Amino acid sequence: MRRILMSAGILAGLSLASCDLTTESQSTFDETSVFSDPTLTEYQIYSIYEVFGHTNSHRGRYLPWYGYNTDIEWYISNTDDEKADIVKYNMLSTNSQLNVADGPYNELFAGIERANLTISGVRQYGSPDSRPEMAERLGEALVLRAVLYTELLKAYGEVPARFAPVDAETIYMNKVDRDVIFKQLLTDLEESFGYLSYDSATSTDRVGLALAKGLYARLSLMASGYAQRPDSGTAGTGNAGTVRLSDDPDLQKSVLYPKALEALKDVISAGGLELEPDYEELWRGVNNMDLTAGHEIIWVIPFSNSRGRWNYTFAVRNNGYTDYSPTTSNRGGQAGPVPYVYYWYDENDIRRDVSCVNFEWEDRGDGTLPYPAGIANWYFGKYRFEWMTDNPYSGGNDDGVKPVYMRYADILLMAAEIANSSEGGVRDESFALECLREILDRAYAGDASSVDAELSGVSGEEAIFEEIKKQRALEFVGEFLRKTDLIRWNCLKESMDAAAAELRAMRADATGAITGRNYSGLGEYLWYRHGTRDGIPSIEMYGIHLGENDATDVTPPEGSGWTPYTNTSGEISRYISDTAFISSDTGVDKASEDGTGFYKADPNLKQWWPIPQTTIINAQGALLNDYGY
Length: 629
What we know:
This protein is mainly α. Among the domains are: 3-65 and 98-272 and 608-618, Alpha Horseshoe (Serine Threonine Protein Phosphatase 5, Tetratricopeptide repeat), CATH 1.25.40; 523-575, no CATH class. It has helices spanning 31-35, 38-50, 55-65, 82-87, 104-125, 132-156, 178-193, 209-224, 253-270, 279-287, 310-314, 341-344, 352-355, 408-420, 429-443, 448-455, 461-476, 482-489, 492-507, 613-618, and strands at 3-5, 28-30, 73-75, 227-229, 242-244, 297-300, 318-319, 335-337, 356-357, 359-363, 368-372, 379-380, 404-407, 527-533, 536-542, 563-564. Helix 2 (38-50) packs antiparallel against helix 5, helix 9 (253-270) packs across helix 14 (408-420) and helix 14 (408-420) runs antiparallel to helix 15. The radius of gyration is 25 Å and the shape is globular. The two termini are 42 Å apart.
């Protein structure tokens, strides 16, 4: 009989391609005693959650690098190095950030092994058919395994299919067509529906029925959408593949969409969830690590309050030691919104000033204050050290902020997309618009006239789909759902090329094709002044909004206390000019017509990360990278 380790680090060192799977411990439990006991089984489930916080798993490698560049999110640095290669679709399997034995690929499989042990053990010893408490444990493990596999599929494309505990015959496995994995995950999630309830998740760091059904829909959209796929039957042979739809009859929209929409409608009608009325309060809660279930947030990556590098990586930038980031090192601002995104929002959309900010924090001798960041450097205002009031950031390598994995807004927008599609059975335009309107009602703070204006002329499948694409951008910027969306819509490169063209329109004082804005209305010079909001220093900037173009380099706006924006030499400087988005240090033009500001290689042919070389080597010939790596 197998013995299993019951500790938080049960499989922390597991590398499925190379490790010795026989691990000795002073504390071992018989499978029968563990998986017949709901408390001990729950401890084993905790070990699955624990994988996300491992040093080079989601904490330090996956989350800091997955999901950008896209048309709405980009890497801010202009340095040309291996980090830039990751986000610019030019990564090699030897990339030093991800080619580590304990990197995301191996850590995700470590979590899958922990889930497999739990699922196998509960099925064999837990009597889930007659014991609801054990059925609930089984459901939780099935959902967690689906989450871990979803993360692998998003990043690596084709991977091995491991749905049973590793044994001597399965240590080394080749990839399979991702359709095999999609079908198993969808089957698992359907099974979990019968084990979980909407009350199962007592906090947002535990999975429950709403996540199971939401993930079912998310996977249905991925599986039935476009992706770079090896030719049929060639996964794991080095085949470069093409961007295409699945040819599996079970993964067509006509099959998956009705089930996915049914799942989403159940969450909407019975899940007890709602949109947080105040968009800013939603994100203040995230920064304060509020784990209260039953509101908008369905599930977060379950870091402890002293683990994770989310704000460390993505918060509004703090330059050096500040009141909110007590360290001499810069924190936050690794990536941010592509600058035009701010102008894609309507002026009355309350999401705009929460999601996209153009300031950074610094102490220049007058205390910690916000200063203009430069037109190329916009930050995700959803993530702010100054909002971490309950658990202030200590200045160390971890901050404890728990990234949002799924929230109710995504349920609504997925439902809108599926209901709007004529490929998914009976198209329901009225329901799609109803879901869109709920999103927009919050965005416009209940201003019905603004909602009506946004939806004016939005009818018919194509127009509604374009509105859904837009609202997914404006609602989720900085949450890194966009890359997966663009891939399944088959517009990854096309969308980044359009974003680069929009930036060229900005610096040319022209009209942008995405936003429809005439950028000649932006001020040539920017002025700013400081104030206070909720006891925190604030900044007001003039010249950054359309129509604020009457100030000059010597004539400030009306009122007192204005300071002109200056360059790094202290000279009054134009805020946006014909050289905007061109690095003065490297000469890189992030708005380049050839798209190289966003990518170095064709992103449609490099949609996935390569499996790390160290894993390939240790796989004893069982693994081979596809997609031209």
